[in-house]
Amino acid sequence: MSKEYITPKLPYDYDALEPHIDKATMMIHHDKHHAAYTKKLNAALDGHEDMFEMSAEDILKDISKIPEDIRQAVVNNGGGHVNHALFWQVMGPDGGGQPKGELMSQIEKDFGSFEKFQQEFEEAAATQFGSGWAWLVKDGDNLKVQKTSNQDTPLSQGMKPILALDVWEHAYYLKYQNLRPDYIKAFWHVVNWDKVSELFNN
Question: What is the pTM of this model?
């Protein structure tokens, strides 16, 4: 590993998710917010160079190993770095529709139907009080919907996130203002189910 974490580039153009997620939001969200989390994570780990031998994901999987004096900073900024990196991947300009194959079968098994999964996910995203995230996670052999506050991640709870929706206001306020439910509905049009399936199968 290098001696610092790097903000990954977007896998598509800033305007690629229009009209569902606007170019201005993507530019500010990625270049300002995500970059700031990465920078602050590197700063928090200054003097703890051995931590850079691990991926940021692995650090968050066992936060008890993080020295107590920097632990909350690593949770906040490491989570911000890792959560956003996943968020960009699970969206795309050719997104939308429904998953196929094993992922779809597992969703139907664990939620009853794809529509019931969507309802549960939307409810988690809409009812997350304040800033946070909605997730589809693998928990053992099962899929579950979760929500977390701030930049907390299901990785720290022993679960593997495979779909993420950022419901911090900076993720949607330029376009949707206070209408978070409209933003949540729009998200389905940009979900990259091929990437979510890849994460599920791995």
Answer: 0.95
